[in-house]
Amino acid sequence: MLVSQSPHANALADADAGTSPQALLERRARLLGPTYRAFYRNPIHLVRGSGVWLYDAQGRKFLDAYNNVASVGHCHPRVVEALSGQAATLNTHTRYLSDIILDYAEKLLGTCPAHLGHAMFTCTGSEANDLAIRIAQYSSGGTGVIITDFAYHGATIATAQLSPAAVGEKAVPAQHRIVAAPDTFRDHGRAARDFAKNVAAAIDDMHARNVRPAALLLDSAFSSDGIFFPDAAVMREAADHVRKAGGIVISDEVQSGFGRLGQGMWGFANYGIEPDIVTLGKPIGDGHPMGAVLVRPRLVASFGSNTGYFNTFGGNPVAAAVGIAVLEVIESEGLIENARTVGAYTAELLRTLKGRHGMVADVRHNGFYFGVELTAQGDEALAATKTSAVVEAMREDGVLISSCGPRGNVLKIRPPLPFARDNAEQLAETLDRALSNW
Amino acid sequence: MLVSQSPHANALADADAGTSPQALLERRARLLGPTYRAFYRNPIHLVRGSGVWLYDAQGRKFLDAYNNVASVGHCHPRVVEALSGQAATLNTHTRYLSDIILDYAEKLLGTCPAHLGHAMFTCTGSEANDLAIRIAQYSSGGTGVIITDFAYHGATIATAQLSPAAVGEKAVPAQHRIVAAPDTFRDHGRAARDFAKNVAAAIDDMHARNVRPAALLLDSAFSSDGIFFPDAAVMREAADHVRKAGGIVISDEVQSGFGRLGQGMWGFANYGIEPDIVTLGKPIGDGHPMGAVLVRPRLVASFGSNTGYFNTFGGNPVAAAVGIAVLEVIESEGLIENARTVGAYTAELLRTLKGRHGMVADVRHNGFYFGVELTAQGDEALAATKTSAVVEAMREDGVLISSCGPRGNVLKIRPPLPFARDNAEQLAETLDRALSNW
């Protein structure tokens, strides 16, 4: 096709860059099939990333206020160097002895309370949650897992069945129990206040139906549920109920971990909870496929000897080198402190928008994890439409965010950790413009 | 501790290199827990790999005749270059558009029969098998999966339940059926001849208990079962039985794929089977954490729109760059041809050992996948002990192999694909010495 035949300016520019988004979408549908869905009505064809910036095929620069995977910044040179150096030296598995995996495990466990004594390595957060459930069911002797009503915990069969956000509540097997997420905003925060009570009721209901509780599985930021940071005492009480019933407390830190919440490395610490198992993923390797399960040693003592677990790529020397580099960058660049201070500054800017736009009903945050709930005088469908429109408008205006929550009316903002004050200002100004257009 | 206080020469050398194997084992047990098990009574502390060679902390060189993950050779420079270059440029996920994932999907699907139209990317073979089962159950409406009696298909909850080699037959849920692996040696190959009949009986048994068949899931090399290459017509007949019953045929090519069997890229082709789903893992990225599901488009049409699937790291640009590099290396270095010709030469050398050592009962192979079955006049325990001893003796003599099979009496030999004739000779000579010591 001749470029001059293209009726759209965008297609023209894209043709210059090699491939139009439309052609890419068609090729995706043909080669990858219908499960591959792109962000934005006008999907972005990315070619480069650096720090908090992403660049498309036309050289347009986007401020990334969404990607928590490239957590220490896109293509961080120190991480890339560790990856490249180790990949050129040795990349085998954990059936051979190696120092680096032990150095990494030691460093990673060193960021946690001492009761989490063992680190086990996987390649994804899904695999980490899948393994955590396996360990919890094995060690508790129970089968039932308690989750929140719009939780997401992974894409394996077992974790998808514990992800109503992905598969719907009906696909959650009968032995599990769904409790209302601790929504701190809606209905004046009733579900958040009642959270421990609801967990206790779920346990009672399990007992009534002869289901033995295995675990309470919670994302410390309630990412899919709409991003909530409920009261610590209530969360501790919920954890206590589960422990008393013989269940295991699993903190899913795949989204909230590695300093994002700005108070320390882990979200569970904000609640004063001592989880029995902690699962890690997404930001753990700044994009490298890694996951981990940190666990109380006694929970895997008999699991280890009877069942065993081996993950071919999990904890290989390259993953360990990358993992160490990520921890070192978080430390040397003061990224937790940055998440705390610039996070607070960003929240302040977002809250001024609440004053200026009636649509902004609530601004919630911890560090660099923000939920901005939009409403439309009680019209839920309209609120969701507006939320989508704001996300799309911001994309067109050069800032990447997304939305979440069961009603799709919460802006989900979670930038890479090196996000600076001027980035925060650009985010807030762009959001201000997007909201003003309604 | 002063070096001169060490009573063992090995410990001395290790102390020079920084850490003794014993200290590493203790540190592993403390940090990683009991699921981490090392190969060999005298575990190897590796520090470097290159081509078919692995080097320990004392600079000792081992010929790798076991690792199928580093399939195009340890730390292949072209793969490392692709990895490093892409990791420094862009490493996001498939919610954005990118050319490289499509180039990779096209290249990968191009190695398969045309009916496998879509590629879906995961991070491990376990995730690939887990997703394949999910798609098979969804698209067939069935639940029951047929596997062989010492199969291994992964480490997620769902795939471990289909891995009697890992969890035992008792842990396989009631809706699944276990059939005897098509053992071409034992009992004069009866299980291999009867394989299709056994699969048909398993389907009948499902029907009798109101279980709807979902899939036949087979490793094309029967790697854990003992490494078998049964008659193609019987395998096709087994596949036909499953299809007629409404089930899906899944070829698990995690071990047998990417040219290892020497006839082409995929093991299923040797049987003339047209699988509905093919799962890939281990060698796909020469050590980089990757997996894939290749599937008939109609099987994911409604799965895609109703359930969806997203894998955070799966198919990211770095994985795609690595995957392309691996395919290019296989092609440019003629590695499939090498697996075929040097594989045949290696088999010839191994067969001469059969003549020289009564203990060697059977030598099976396709390309670079060898099963050498050892017996001890019908004493199974002794055969297993001898098999272990041979593996250990070879490790001490500088060649790495392992064992498999339900009775632990099959030497498992599957070198990286650049394995050369002189490597084959070293392998055979070392094995000759190990066998002679019995």
UniProtKB/TrEMBL annotation, chains A, B:
Keywords: Aminotransferase, Pyridoxal phosphate, Transferase. Its cofactor is pyridoxal 5'-phosphate. CDD domains: OAT_like (cd00610). Belongs to the class-III pyridoxal-phosphate-dependent aminotransferase family. InterPro entries: Aminotrans_3, Aminotrans_3_PPA_site, PyrdxlP-dep_Trfase, PyrdxlP-dep_Trfase_major, PyrdxlP-dep_Trfase_small. One of its GO terms (molecular function) is transaminase activity. PROSITE patterns: AA_TRANSFER_CLASS_3. This is Aspartate aminotransferase family protein. Pfam families: Aminotran_3. It comes from Mesorhizobium calcicola.
